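ARCHIVE CARD
Drawer: 12
Card no.: 0347
Subject: one protein chain, sequence and derived structure
Cross-reference: see card 0346
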Amino acid sequence: MPPTEPDRTRLDKWLWAARFFKHRTNATEAVDGGKVRVNGAPVKPSREVKPGDRVEVTIGEDHRVVIVRAIAEKRGPAEVARTLYEETPESIAEREQARELRRMAAPPGADLHGRPTKRDRRQIQRFRGS
């Protein structure tokens, strides 16, 4: 009898296999930290996911909402990982908009012009209360 595809797997294992996280430990920590929700509810890493579940993943500033399409027990190539889920159109639009806003924003420290002047230093000292 040939091995059958599993119909459920642990959330942390699926996130790792779908290449949202480089290590399974990172996936577990993200789930424990509240960065992952399944069907709108906070979950534990041992929660089983099945095809059709809606998974929300936040990694840094990146927020994705995906629908589970397939289950994998092992981590495979990126082409296979992309077939495990389908990102919602709203999620794609949100990420594009956030990327555009980050691109248009001034880089941190753009308003600073080198070392502080004597006047700047005095203002800093007054502000610090020294």
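Annotation on reverse: Residues 89-104 form the longest helix (16 residues). The longest strand covers residues 62-68.
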